[in-house]
Design brief:
single chain, 279 residues, alpha+beta, 18-stranded mixed sheet, 5 helices, 46% strand, globular
C-alpha cells in the first residue's frame, strides 16, 4: 500500500490514493488509528483518502482523525491534498475537492503554497459564555459546512505566557462541554498586532494540541473580524507550525467566503509495511 506524508504548517497527514488501492471504506478507521500512532507507526494528526468524485468535483477527500473518528473537513489537509492532486494529475492548478461537509475550491500560489476556500459557515454565535474551571469564558461558536465542523473560539490574553498544562486542561474541558453538543475544536487566540494574531487549537479526534488547524484558524479570524477586532483582510496567524493567512470576504454583515493560505510540505513517500496493520 503506497502512502504519501505531508504537512501544512505542521499539521501532518498520511494520504492514501484509493483510486489505486481499492480498499473498503470500513477499513479506514482502523488504518487511521494504526498508521497515525506516532510511536508505533508512521505518525500523523490524520489520514486522508482520495476517492472518486460523486458531485462533479475533481475528486473526493475522506478525512479520519488519528483516533479513527471521521472528520467533516480539514483545512490544512485540504491545502495539502490540493497540492497532491495537482502534482499527481488528479486536477489542475485550480481545483474542486469534495469533502463530507461540502465542496472546497483550491488554487496553487506557487510550488509549496496553496490557497483554499473553506466550507461556508453555517452557524455563527459570537457570544456563547461557558463556565469552565471556575471562570466564565466568552466564547464564539462557529460551524463550517454541512454537516457543520464545530469550533469554539476563545480569546486568551497573554496566550504565549500561559502554562501549556493549564491550557490543555482548559482545552479538554471546553472540548467536551455541554455548551457544544457536537463537541468542539477549541481555538485559543490573542491579537498581537495590526492584523496579526497568535492561535493554538486543541483538536477533537486528536485530543491534544496540534501544530496548526486550518479550519480553526479560519474560524478564529472570522469571529474576530465579525466582532470588529481585526479587519479580516489578509490576517497573519501565528501557529506552532508556522504562519497561515486568512481573508474574510463580506457583504456588510454577511459572510461570503473564508480563504485560507499557507505552506505545504511533502515529507516522504513509500510503501506501508506496518505488521500491526491488518487489512
Amino acid at each position: 500500500m503506497h502512502f504519501t506524508k505531508m504537512n501544512g504548517a505542521g499539521n501532518d497527514f498520511i494520504i492514501l490514493n484509493n483510486l489505486e488501492e481499492h480498499l473498503e471504506q470500513s477499513l479506514f478507521p482502523s488504518i487511521a488509528r494504526t498508521l497515525c500512532h506516532r510511536h508505533l507507526s508512521i505518525g500523523a494528526d490524520g489520514l486522508m483518502v482520495v476517492e472518486s468524485s460523486r458531485q462533479g468535483g475533481d475528486y473526493r477527500m475522506l478525512f479520519y482523525n488519528s483516533d479513527g473518528s471521521e472528520g467533516e473537513m480539514c483545512g490544512n489537509g485540504a491545502r495539502c491534498i490540493c497540492r497532491y492532486g495537482c502534482e499527481n494529475g488528479l486536477a489542475g492548478e485550480t481545483q474542486t475537492v469534495e469533502t463530507p461537509s461540502g465542496l472546497v475550491t483550491g488554487a496553487r500560489i506557487d510550488r509549496r503554497n496553496y490557497r483554499i476556500r473553506l466550507t461556508d459557515p453555517t452557524v455563527i454565535d459570537l457570544h456563547r459564555p461557558v463556565e469552565a474551571l471556575g471562570q466564565t469564558w466568552d466564547c464564539s461558536y462557529i460551524e463550517l459546512g454541512t454537516p457543520g465542523l464545530p469550533h469554539a473560539v476563545v480569546p486568551c490574553p497573554a496566550l504565549s505566557r500561559r502554562s501549556m498544562d493549564d491550557l490543555r486542561e482548559l482545552g479538554r474541558t471546553l472540548r467536551w462541554h455541554p455548551a457544544f453538543p457536537k463537541g468542539a475544536n477549541v481555538n485559543f487566540c490573542e491579537i498581537t498586532g495590526p492584523e496579526q494574531i497568535t492561535e493554538l487549537t486543541y483538536e477533537r479526534g486528536v485530543e491534544d494540541f496540534t501544530y496548526a488547524c486550518g479550519t480553526g484558524t479560519g474560524s478564529a479570524v472570522l469571529a474576530l473580524a465579525l466582532l470588529g477586532r481585526v479587519s479580516g483582510e489578509d490576517v497573519s496567524v501565528s501557529v506552532p507550525g508556522g504562519t497561515l493567512r486568512v481573508t474574510i470576504d463580506r457583504d456588510g454583515d454577511a459572510v461570503k467566503a473564508v480563504w485560507l493560505t499557507g505552506p505545504t510540505n511533502i515529507v516522504c513517500e513509500g510503501e506501508v509495511r506496518d505488521e500491526d496493520l491488518h487489512i
